[in-house]
């Protein structure tokens, strides 16, 4: 074996383990540096997205993703129609959070991209069995019985049923690896920013009813043993969620 080729192979393998930072992560680091330097002290409000984007030379979507990452890290808090604020514990949280990009990207848009790639496949595996599932039918009925989504407790219940619905489909796939991947996604969608965006979007009863209807389409395709339809309906549903979340960001 050629030693030179071996060295190149080792070098390539090592490089594959290093994830280059995305643009929004670099923007997040710039914002954190400004917080550390006292430009945006704890308790202060960040400039508007358009002003940050202009100052940093990036698009507003990149700024939104950077702010979302800092919300997940416990550095910022976003308030609807008010803006983004530096939390009092921001400096302590920044010392705790590593900035070496070794951690997986679990921002809402990255998670939605992963869901679009993975969850249709999970539904197709589940549909291969072509069986009905009493637990999923119970969850769908419970979601429809939630009457007041403006009530935080009922909204939490609705979200819990929705969470369990997607987990149950993964278990119907019968594939241990897909079940584990679905569990990883479930942890990502339970992060702070995702919960906030979900709560802000799901307060609309009409939207919630539409989501339940889409869930029923997914389930009926699985129960009927139609993998193609199951994958299509999952993809359609996640694309709608993506659109709704982008409207909130």
Shape: elongated
Roughly what percent helix? Answer: over 70%
Q: In whole angstroms, how far apart are the ends? A: 53 Å
The sequence of SSEs as H and E is HHHHEEHHHHHHHH
- Beta strand %: under 5%
Q: Low-confidence parts lasting 5 or more residues at pLDDT below 50?
A: 1-19
Oligomer status: single chain
| Overall pLDDT confidence | 83
Tell me how many strands there are.
2
Radius of gyration: 21 Å
Largest sheet: 2 strands, antiparallel
Look at the helices and sheets and give the structural class. Answer: mainly alpha
Describe the structure in your own words:
- This protein is mainly alpha-helical and 249 residues long.
- It has helices spanning 3-17, 23-36, 49-56, 60-72, 90-96, 108-127, 134-145, 152-173, 176-188, 192-202, 205-223, 227-248; strands at residues 76-79, 83-86.
- Strands 1-2 form a two-stranded antiparallel ribbon.
- α8 (152-173) packs antiparallel against α9 (176-188).
- The model is unreliable at 1-19 (pLDDT under 50).
């Amino acid at each position: 074996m050629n030693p030179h080729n071996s060295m190149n192979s080792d070098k390539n393998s090592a490089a594959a383990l290093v994830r280059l930072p995305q643009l929004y992560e670099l923007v997040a680091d710039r914002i954190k540096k400004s917080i550390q330097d006292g430009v945006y002290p704890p308790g202060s409000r960040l400039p508007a997205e358009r002003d940050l984007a202009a100052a940093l030379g990036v698009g507003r979507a990149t700024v939104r993703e950077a702010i979302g990452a800092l919300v997940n890290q416990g550095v910022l808090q976003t308030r609807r129609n008010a803006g983004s604020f530096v939390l009092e514990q921001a400096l302590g949280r920044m010392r705790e959070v590593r900035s070496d990009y070794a951690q997986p990207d679990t921002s809402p848009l990255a998670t939605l991209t992963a869901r679009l790639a993975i969850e249709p496949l999970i539904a197709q595996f589940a549909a291969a069995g072509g069986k009905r599932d009493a637990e999923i039918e119970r969850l769908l009925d419970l979601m429809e019985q939630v009457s007041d989504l403006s009530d935080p407790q009922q909204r939490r219940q609705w979200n819990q049923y929705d969470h369990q619905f997607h987990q149950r489909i993964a278990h119907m796939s019968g594939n241990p690896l897909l079940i584990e991947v679905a569990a990883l996604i479930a942890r990502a969608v339970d992060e702070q920013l995702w919960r906030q965006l979900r709560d802000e979007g799901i307060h609309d009863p009409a939207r919630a009813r539409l989501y339940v209807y889409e869930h029923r389409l997914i389930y009926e395709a699985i129960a009927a043993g139609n993998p193609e339809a199951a994958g299509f309906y999952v993809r359609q549903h996640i694309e709608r969620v993506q659109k709704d979340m982008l409207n909130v960001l």
